[in-house]
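Dear all,

This email documents one entry for the complex benchmark we are building for the journal club exercise. For each entry we list the sequence lines for every component of the assembly. Then comes the predicted three-dimensional structure of the complex as a token string, followed by one or two observations. Please use this as the template for your own entries, and keep the labels exactly as they appear.
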Amino acid sequence: MDRQFIPRSVQRSSFARFAAWILPWILLLGLGLYAMYLCLAEGLNQTNMDNRFAFGLWIYLDLTVIALGAGAFFTGFLLYILRREELKAVINSAVVLGLICYSGAVAVLMVDVGQPLRAWFTFWHPNTHSMLTEVTFCLTCYLTVLAIEYVPVVLKNRKLRQIPRFLVFEFELHKVMPVFAGIGTFLSFFHQGSLGGLYGVLVGRPFAFREVLGIWPSTFYLFILSAAAVGPSFVLLTTWLVQKLSGKQLVKPEVLRFLGKVSGWMLIVYVLLKTVDTLYWINHTAPAEGAPAYTFYTSPGFGTWILFAEIILLGLLPAIMLLSKRLRERPAVLVSAAFLACCGIVMNRFVMTIQTLALPTLPFDQMMSYVPSWQEIATFLAIVAYGVVLYSLSFRYMTLFPQERDIRQ
Amino acid sequence: MFPFIYEFHWTPVHVVFLGIFFSVVIVILSTLSIALLRSYKAFRKQQHETIQWEAEFEDLPVAARTCRHQITGEIAQRTCNHEFDCRSCAVHPTFLAQRAPVLAPAGKEESVFGFTMPLDRYYHRGHTWVKYEGEGVYTVGLDDFGKRMIGTPDAVELPAVGTTLTANGTGWMLKKERAALRILSPIEGVVVQTGTAQDGWFLKVRGREPIVETRHLLRGEEIKPWIMRELERLQAAVSPEGVGVSLADGGELVQDMWKQAPQVDWDGVWGEMFLQA
Amino acid sequence: MEQTAQSKSRYGMVIDLDRCTGCGVCMVACAVENNVAPAEQKATERTGVTWLRVYPVSNGEGFPANDTVFIPMTCQQCGNHTPCVSVCPQNAVEVDPSTGIVGQIPQRCLGCRYCMTACPYHARYFDWWDPQWPEGTEVLLNPDVAPRMRGVAEKCNFCHGRLHAARTKAAAAGRKEIAAGDYVPACVESCPSRAIVFGDLADETNEVSRLSHSINTFQFLPKLGTAPKIFYHSAKEWVRKMADRAPLA
């Protein structure tokens, strides 16, 4: 029934099957929207956050999805600025992923703050010393850029492109895309960094505080690197997943291998610098603040195994797997390495946000625990559901993988 | 945010921060405006047909964009990067200098792999033909290959007399089943008369100049290899997985392929063969 | 941030932990003075609002060596690189250069809670619920202090209502400076054992200034370099050692 909206020459499942796939997600989205409504109408008492654990699940996952969404800017940067034409095969998919991640994160942030209607205050009288100001400005601008980058993808829909106005606008927009890719890269550098700086500047939290390099703490640079390293891996992983779910080959294998290679190089540089940073922090920064680093790892849940897992198991190991040409050529290894790299970022953002808040700062305090409420989890699941719905619709009605048609023949 | 707002400080950090922010906003907005303005201008100048073709061409599979000189075997491998407009191609004249195909005398029926392809006319890659009728008027029609792929169309939407056509722009529309097909105009000019499928032609077009440049159209000895190539493309489009769908009937291609193989995704096949994404 | 170093006054406190009995009157006085609404039924010790909180800390020994110290913990009015000021995205936290008091502007607060994350003393509180006063108790509200709405952060500001009152009184009398006795925060005033001494640390003739330099006086988390203006005093060695220890050490 929706055949005329589906791109020519590609196979998509019947509308009934598509509806059956999308419906549970829409129900989940509905539940999440209800949870969001509760939080907005009743207040943040609906969450399990408190005065001690003032940032919870939402901030943690916001930082994570924004890092994963970095695939959009980095792929755009490689394609439009460095002219790696092979990435045309995944750029549309990367843009949709980026849009989902960023718009989802911003939506959750709007629930997370106590007075969302005052969000514009940050623009009106900004405190330019605050990392959060930098994050707010960059996120707003970059979300606009992502929306603009998504417009051509939508306008190329089979039905919409029949309207000459749309096609001409799409054509002209496509010509100026390198400008948006450049701006997107510039903004991404700043806000990925500022998200790292968010915790790095916390002088009152010796676990998170890092020495300033230039005008930003070291976490600023590490967050940029880790996001750029994991972005391509996430694009790789989602492309593989969509291929599995749809049962179709969507891109040539060398495209995925190239993404893996880029990810590997960025990851190895990140792991190296992260190691240097960690050593300096253990030996200098933390003790100078009156908190010897060993005290951070005394509680059973947060032992030193965290450092090992984050840097070696989920950093160095996938980097080596992605950098070895022999290993990379085996699809199973490539995909597992990308998965491990993504887990690494999930872990790193967890450590930076949750462990920072769980550790006490006052001498007489103990470790603090926090378990998110169902409203918090449902709100986040709403974003996941929204992402699946938007991606599924885009995959069905738009051309996310231009190579799909060529491969079929 | 602005100097007249409380909490604005003329400190370096504040000025640099807001300076960068406003620069970014200005770049985003001006780039967007440029794109909008350009598309508005393109419309004013009636360039949208050309642009539409350029955009569609970009989205065509590589196999559909093969250079005519590869088809004839003059060069091993070459993908067209001039949207099938050999008039602006720098390489095309060098091939012409070596071998220039010419039209055959009128009235000579030519059967190419079972298709009736008279060689007294020019052919466009989108399966239309053009024939010069004298006094600056050209007749335009759908070729036999195109006809047999579609069979009898459900509806034909022809442009009104007086419409200006662009080469590679929309010639006319054919509707069949769910598919709405844009048949590309092989030449530019003004429509002076419209025909029907029964007439064997669809449009009579007066060229903008007395002699319309036809360098981009196929002719003569190019037709046979081209049709062979098109048959290969058709076969690939009809049965991508290599499963046999027979379009031939005792060695002869059927008159109405659509009727012969209704299970095929004709919408996709037509799109591919009539060069639209 | 650096302005506070050159400010005229630097209000601060010295709290004598040896005198504090943990009675909690200061907490009540603070809440009443600053229109902190009665706790919501579902509020816990981690979601309730108490600008001043008294923590009991034991020395961990058994009877008879057991000893407990009560530590009133409030905003430490950090005087250097005040952690909550630089993080606020919209200038809702500011240090008053003339008093050194770290002020919170709830009307401008977005409720992002970044300042709460930044504060190592957990002295900042969030309004998780709408503030509600039981029927009839509204008349007890302090007209000098605006109650805060749901969804913003709040904290101790050394009873700014009282500071304004003192300033008004001085102005009425034709004086530019307020008299020391005219400005006393509610917790200081209410303490039955007079454990809290309040005043201008910049004025070296002042008792608070003298006590802040005296032996056995210490600060919490001095190594963070934030120069808190709340000092604690205890003659007991274990208390001072405890305060100097790293958490979980």
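Observations: Residues 12-44 of chain B form the longest helix (33 residues). Residues 49-273 of chain B form a domain with the OB fold (Dihydrolipoamide Acetyltransferase, E2P) fold (CATH 2.40.50.100).
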